[in-house]
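I hope you will forgive my troubling you with a question about protein structure. The matter concerns a single protein, recorded as an amino acid sequence and a row of backbone structure tokens. Please examine both parts with care and let me know of anything in them that strikes you as inconsistent. Here, with my thanks, is the record as I have it:
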Amino acid sequence: MPTQMPPGDARPLRDFLNEAANGEERFLHGRRASVALGELTHGSSLGGDLAALDGACVLVLTRDQLTTALTLIELDGVAQRMILCPADFPLEHLPVVVAKAGVDAIVADEDTADLAPLAVPLHVTCTPAIAPDAATQPGGRRTEWILFTSGTTGIPKMVVHTLASLTSAIKPRARRDGRIVWATFYDIRRYGGLQILLRAVLDGGSLVLSDPQEPIAEHLARLGSHGATHVTGTPSHWRRVLMSPAAHAMAPGYVRLSGEIADQAVLDNLHALYPHARIVHAFASTEAGVGFEVADAREGVPASTIADPANGVKLKIEDGSLRISSPGNAGHYLGDGDLPLAGPDAFVDTNDMMELRDGRYYFIGRRGRIVNVGGLKVHPEEVEAVINRHPAVRVSLVHPRRNAITGAVVVADVVLRDHLDGDGAHADGVRQEIVELCRGQLARHKVPAAVRFVPSLTFSASGKLARHHA
């Protein structure tokens, strides 16, 4: 049976590779190649360079998610520090990262000649071809895992985790759960995707990795061919699935949403698409770790969950914002004065605003995203949740538009379901229905002054709506 990493367990990830569920071989499946996890117990994707990385501060610049996964598994317990750079990380920020973190090695899966100006002495190449490695492998270090915050301007902060904090929310599954094949739309170099890689390794499962260049229909077909049972992504990821004719190419038994507000419309649509799946929406952040999950098929969070989320997590709402204290809290920020995050009484402010209605807390938006309409506050996400309830709407994006009288008004860009036309009398009727829906459920200043139908919206590399107007 897979074994959860108990508190104080210093074993590296590599020690868990042979703890398979039901004796079945486990794999990491990339878009172009697959690797049996057991191969890493007697081989290396880093060739003969693993010993050279012992005690190093390593900048992980692999672009392919399969080579990224192999690198992270091999370096845990070997490197002193691993810095996980997402594929969309701005290269112009790397000199500051190298200086702050004390980087002395780079692992990449592409030519690194253009990184010569960084003056990092050791460059190592990772490939999905596992080379036999009979030599004694180094290990035993408590490696620091450095993740970048997302959704910020300028250079993102570097958040320091350990394997213990990253895996604090991962619980062992019973043998009766059978064969588990995890899949994620996330980038595993960010917190949400990394959680799924760690679950697969510790939980005795295989993992199907995503590729941002892969068409959604091909990705879904690949998930189906590998028999994905547990699939995770943001609500925006799942809306792409719902819009794809290939959505039935897979038949997961477990669907998980996190990273954005899961509104009732996307939950209902997923229940209709995968009627036999357990559908869960969860909250987690890079700094705070996993806060809670909700599995009752409703948007929002029961007040009882906020009062007692279990698993060693403490939650509270202060000044309207969700705050989390848990074993999954990061230790500190690297550099920037090493600001503390963790401690027995330390609560991480998520800046996610919540409102209590009828015994249930609802997310209404991010603190920094407020639109000021004549001195009154509007959270775009709150308005979007209402618009998305209309049966003709697939997804919406609410943003401000300047107004000479109120300073700003709320406007909405809306993507309709594929079978509806955004022009003509029918569209005018849908537009009016959306406005009336908002008038019935929102204060007057929150009702969109304009509704514009658009063919698509832009999403960030992390799978969230790109809020250029916010």
Summary: The first strand starts at residue 27 and ends at 29. Residues 1-8 have pLDDT under 50 and may be disordered. The first helix runs from residue 65 to 75. Residues 43 and 133 are 5 Å apart (CA to CA).
